[in-house]
Amino acid sequence: MVIVLLIVMVGTAMGELLSDVAGGRMPAGLIGILMLLKMPDVLSTIIPLSIFVSIIWGTGRMYRDQEMSVMRASGFNWLMLLRPLFNLLMPVAVFLLAVDLFVAPKAAGTVQQKLEEAYKSAAEWGLRPGQFHVFKGGELVLYVESVDKDGRTLRNIFIQMKQEEREQVWSAKQGYYWLDMEAGERYLTLEDGQITEGGTKVKVLDFGIIHFSRNDLRLPELEHRIKTVSLEARPSADIMLSAQLEDIAEVQWRVSPAIAVIVLGMLAIPLSHSAPREGRGGRVILGILAYTIYANILYIWRSWIAEGDLPPSFGLWWVHLLVFIVALVWLQRQGRMVGKG
Questions:
Q1: How far apart, in whole angstroms, are the C-alpha atoms of residue 334 and residue 331?
Q2: How many alpha carbons fall within 13 Å on the CB side of residue 300?
Q3: Fewer CB atoms near the end CB (10 Å): N or C, the chain?
Q4: Range of the structural domain that residue 146 is part of
């Protein structure tokens, strides 16, 4: 189950990265390393779901094959089922806690560092001398005649930009990349060049030429998920006791997968119960639906806490507690509480 979900999540992440590359927001040379560094976040998403579905599937088979009926007739009670269940869930929860509190922030920091380095390197960005590079769906075309050995300095640059009914052609003898750390935006600094601007329609003949010794051109903006990587990259020790709303929401979000895997394990018990002739597929689909609702509520509440719409003390804990209570009530309605044969 983990392998199947991992393939799906990796495919989704790869699609997002390729979209960023096509839109000029991501260096093509970093796809491989970024995919590897995204694995901690991917594992935090798929492991709770895979454990949840596996428990539903495995326990449901025991009902289907009448094994559970035989076990209950032999004096089996639910305490005997919970013990091996928690023997599985607790190590997984500890593993997720370590990944989300330590490994994932370190990986996010490495992603940020790699991106910052790539913004200064034409080679990492995927620029090839002597080729036209199209960004933003054709609105920005960049051509570089040559790149120096340092991988940063560009020679004889040509840029064409289209904005509604206006068109600009930039040309410069040299240039280089740099990143505005505060704004999170990347620029191409051009030196010793000129800008030719005019209308794109035949009737518009107002052309102008501007000469410059230096000009900074802002390149396509990064998406929101890249801009916010600095919070994700902060060590857990730095934000654990912070009073900032965003830090509080981030800490609770990092702990959530470890709690969720235990809560989902409890919820899987009543979900797995099925009639002798009932198929297991329906229970699995119901479980995936329950997981989707659970995960989306956590995500929404995280945003509300970060934006101040919910008090930090309310937090994400109540979501976990609510689902846990639902699981216990569901067990009670089935008459299968722990200790009852």
A1: 5
A2: 7
A3: C
A4: 126-221
